[in-house]
Amino acid sequence: MDLTGGLFGWLVVMLTVGAFAAVVVFWPKVASTGPLRIAARVGMLLGVNLLVVLTAAVQLNDQFLFYAGWEDLAGAINGTTTTSSLHSGTDARRALEATPTGPAATAAARSVTPLPPGGHIEDGASSYTVSGKLSGVTTTVIVTVPPGYDPADAATTYPVLETFSGYPGSVSQWVRTMRLRQQLTTQVSAHTMGRAIVVSPQLEVPAGVDTECVDGPSGTAQMETFLTRDVPQWVSEHFHVRAGRDAWATIGLSAGGWCAAMAAMLHPAQYGGAIIMGGYFHPEFSGGYDPFPPNSAMGRRYDLLALVRSAPPPLAIWIETSHADPVSYASTSTLLKIAKPPLSVEDVVLQNAGHRISVWQDQLPKALKWLGRSLPGFAPVR
Fold first, then answer.
1. Which of 35, 66, 156, 302 has its CA 20 to 30 A from that of 289?
2. What are 275's strand-pairing partners?
3. Is the dihedral of CA 61, 64, 70, 72 positive or negative?
4. Is residue 199 within 8 Å of residue 143, measured between CB atoms?
5. What is the pLDDT of residues 135-184, one digit of tens each?
């Protein structure tokens, strides 16, 4: 019997209902006096409550696929690492040497416009309210600077890694949950990549809406424009960043993996690379937000598999998926089959991994090492 799916879930629900009915029937028959009878009542209540919690956990796992199967659950409990296969695609250097189309990567400013102090998040991270000039979107952006960043030092510039959270998620997911700054510091110390600025925009505009980072119709948030045009421009105006797409990359998990793929694949002149963890390659709207039908012009624009078949972008991407992850595996396996130059793909395909944070935390060091060796702008400083 599979961990996910209706049969196991219904079995747990029936067991919970049966236990509750047993408590109702036998409760009056268990007198409230005497230590053994009191213990029996406590045990009955505890058993029912544990089954209620188990029912909720099974239903949440069915919905969000934290654990893909019994093997995945056992591996998580025992602390064992799932096996993986690593495949190298087209040389990333060939992708970066190709000439992309679209707006050029935002140029680094020799002097930047001073910002008022942002809201402090933690060491190196501050939140700002950013108003997009092109999109009209106003929302929160967290900027995390590397250790040693000096606003007065215009001679030292940094690559930029733009992050995308899952849905539902938090703008601070990559700062706090994924601890990206600490992971970057570790890679810098190991001389596998250079210091970088991390930019984390809020994706749910309005709050709670699964925008999938796309430009919606008139009257809705123009998120693609905000994330790929306004945010890079704002960052370049206020921080010492490098020009050139080999110094700009995206990273995302789950729904944010889709956003990272979309931003980079539709804007290869801005971004040279993307890290996609548990993502997919066409928008999957939820929560009642449905900005356009799939067969519309906008729907076709956001079909990244069709883009790869007809005009693969000159881009280097790193992808994580699992055979047991129904959210990401189908579209990712298709992309791996059809990918061709100038698109460069390196993938990690896990055998029995779920769709959860701990899997992506384990894979993050591999992804950052790939970034440091694949995009010259992120290479370690010797």
1. 66
2. 251, 318
3. negative
4. yes
5. 999 999 999 999 999 999 999 999 999 999 999 999 999 999 999 999 99
Q: Count the neighbouring beta carbons within 10 Å of the beta carbon of residue 9.
A: 16
Which amino acid makes up residue 146? P
In this prediction the pTM is: 0.82
Angstrom CA distances, 26 to 19, 21, 55, 65, 371, stand at 10, 9, 22, 37, 62
d(CA 269, CA 242): 14
Supply angle C-alpha 307, 309, 315, rounded to 5.
60
Which strands, in side-by-side order, build the sheet including 138-144?
A: 84-88, 344-350, 316-322, 273-277, 248-253, 160-164, 197-201, 138-144, 125-131, 119-122
Cis peptide before 365 (omega within 30 of 0): no
**Cβ atoms of residues 70 and 3 within 8 Å:** yes
pLDDT tens-digit readout, 42-58? 777 787 777 777 667 66
Residue 377: DSSP 8-state = G
- Separation CA 65–CA 80 (nearest Å): 19
Domain boundaries, the chain: 6-64, 84-378
Both tokens assigned to 301: 């624009």
Q: Do you know the residue count of the chain? A: 382
Q: Which residues contact 148 (CB under 8 A, 6 or more apart)?
A: 195
Q: Which CATH architecture has domain 84-378?
A: 3-Layer(aba) Sandwich (3.40)
8 A C-beta contact, residue 335 and residue 345? yes
Residue 256 and residue 355: Cα distance in Å, rounded?
Answer: 13
Closest listed residue to residue 377, CA positions, set 142, 149, 93: 93
